[in-house]
Amino acid sequence: MKCEIIAIGSELLTPFRQDTNSLYLTERLNELGVVVAFKTIVGDRRKDLTNAIRTALGRVDIIITMGGLGPTEDDLTREAWADALGTELKRDADIVGQLYVRAAQRRWQLTENNLKQADMLDGAQMLENPHGTAPGQWVDTVFGAHRKLGMLLPGPPSEIKPMFDEQCIPRLREIVPQRFIATRTLKAAMIGESHADARIAPIYSQFTDVETTILAHLGDIQLTLISTKSTMEEAEARVNELASLIEEELDDLVYSSAKQSESLEQIVLYYLEMRGATLSVAESCTGGLIAERLTSIAGSSRSFLGGAVVYSNELKTEFAGVPEELIEEKGAVSREVATALAEGIRRRCRSTYGVGVTGIAGPGGGNEEKPVGLVYIAISDGVQTEVVQKNFSGDRERIRFYASQQALDMVRRQLM
Amino acid sequence: MKCEIIAIGSELLTPFRQDTNSLYLTERLNELGVVVAFKTIVGDRRKDLTNAIRTALGRVDIIITMGGLGPTEDDLTREAWADALGTELKRDADIVGQLYVRAAQRRWQLTENNLKQADMLDGAQMLENPHGTAPGQWVDTVFGAHRKLGMLLPGPPSEIKPMFDEQCIPRLREIVPQRFIATRTLKAAMIGESHADARIAPIYSQFTDVETTILAHLGDIQLTLISTKSTMEEAEARVNELASLIEEELDDLVYSSAKQSESLEQIVLYYLEMRGATLSVAESCTGGLIAERLTSIAGSSRSFLGGAVVYSNELKTEFAGVPEELIEEKGAVSREVATALAEGIRRRCRSTYGVGVTGIAGPGGGNEEKPVGLVYIAISDGVQTEVVQKNFSGDRERIRFYASQQALDMVRRQLM
């Protein structure tokens, strides 16, 4: 079955914004064996929108629109669907009721425009939206003598993903012919893409029935193995076989090989908890990024105590007890100060491990001796302190992320 | 004049790749006054490709295809254009000659497939490609009684950009009526989309010649105003007029109205520097996110000193001097502890302002009295401390982001 994804919003036709939701939907659709044949991006003009939907109805089986379900004047997706199908919208009393209840709970004033969100296509099923106000719609109809499936989904990623996963996929599963796809994802930190590929290409190239893709992103390599077979056992056996061989080759560089791929911060917290250990961080150039990444995981408070963002020299002394003379003598960006940060924050927080990071994230602040991208990362367990020097390339964002990635990977290795 | 950009390549329909060339072309087209009304992404299937081109011929004036001009089996753009226009391809002897010369220079073996690159649409002009082998084509024809302009451009960014700039833009300039486009972006924090729309719709709906779009994302509203006129003065006057009226209505909710739109963290740092003031933060539930957002901006060290991530109660006392008894009596998530965090971190860091945040980001940890989403945010200037209570909805990521957004917006308002 062929699908077209239509992203709606005039902002997506400016030079500054791109649709990214479709990547997620494509991945989930492919898992079901549905091919995405077209993607269309169209603005908030009713005529253009109707044209895009009618075109899709003429060339594919499944049409997904994303966006334009909000309460404003330029949310016209419902109207355009009705125009394209040659049908009418009907205001659904139940949904009107729900909108009033939700507005009352949040003490919002409901406007006439808000009620547009209760307008349903003839014969459509409502898709609930627990993460926003705009309900989606599921259409299963006949158009031009062919069965067509339509989904009207909201635009925000936090709304579209759960709605698609929980309400569209189960419905699609009942309609789309069954195929079995097994996937495995291996993740490795701080290894270059071409270096990784050179090591593993001789292995995966022998598995011609397993699709292997390598994706590199900011100090992270993600290997995705996909096998499609007529039984799940067969598909899983093939990806597992290949995964084992790759893991053997890359050894301790691989930090995650679970079916449900984990992030480096999840792995670090998992190991910390398993060992009954705690962690604190003193961050200069990463400015809170390591703490932010760890605390983004629910339950992180069991192992991550907190720490300090010590951007100024005074705070390095105040919060991590780094001697003023040491900063003066060696400079704030130095092996010695990184070590003192790790040891000092560990003592102050009474944690099992302490991490210290100091460096030059740029774009300014570098010189010949200490260039932009120079970062020292230290980890202390109270007995000894390991410190590494790195020269990262890239812009401020990249350098900061690499430094946080390196720090988390060092904690992981300590715990292994 | 309306344009459609068609990106060609099956890899652009996988979860892993996106078309980015269109952003560049859109920017250049907008400068000419050409509106991009549709973008379509289609794979290397001849039938789908023909369908996409024919659809575009039916709904816009200018059609640009990107990619599919190479020498391989699945480079089918030329054939699809011929199918869509109902015309024939003719092998151009001059281009064949050029291909041979180029191959000889590079000691390539020319295959029969390579010669496909010399196949021209009837009446088309060749667009030279100094950066690759595949020449482009310029089509100026009549289809369905309307004049249509077509461009067949190569896919690689290094080839398409110079070809478009040097050979397509001069041709377009002679045909497209001269128009000028002015844009303005207004940003406001912590106001709901429909609430904002209800307040400003009466204003912008009177400016029928200015296109207004509202985009909401995690506690941020972005209003884009676009005006197209025959002189730049006129276009700018219209967007400026509308922008002033909206700013007047939304008053201090608007934090950015510059031509080049700024982020909330940039605005906060800008105001801090302007006032010669400094800031420190003590973060519990946001876990470093506020510090991370501020330090992501280059030069933030001039005004942002740092702070503490005080996830555990012990660290709230250790780093921000919050009395143990206060935490015991009122609970870590309370108005009083937020206040003590703001005041304590300000004292410890000797900054002009101190911010304290404590709350329940979830998914666990909530109860009836203190539910998930409850967050207290305090800001102290040493004389007085303002504290607000918020009940944010959404998942952990949203709650944390909203809290950081609220905190930054409170700093902004203090500084105004």
TrEMBL record, chains A, B:
Pfam families according to UniProt: CinA (PF02464), CinA_KH (PF18146), MoCF_biosynth (PF00994)
Domain MoaB/Mog, residue spans: 4-175
InterPro entries referenced in this protein's UniProt entry, alphabetically: CinA (IPR050101), CinA-like_C (IPR036653), CinA_C (IPR008136), CinA_KH (IPR041424), Competence-induced_CinA (IPR008135), MoaB/Mog-like_dom_sf (IPR036425), MoaB/Mog_dom (IPR001453)
NCBIfam families hit by this protein: cinA_nterm, PncC_domain, PRK00549.1
Family that this chain belongs to: Belongs to the CinA family.
PANTHER family in the record: NICOTINAMIDE-NUCLEOTIDE AMIDOHYDROLASE PNCC, NMN AMIDOHYDROLASE-LIKE PROTEIN YFAY
This protein's name: CinA-like protein
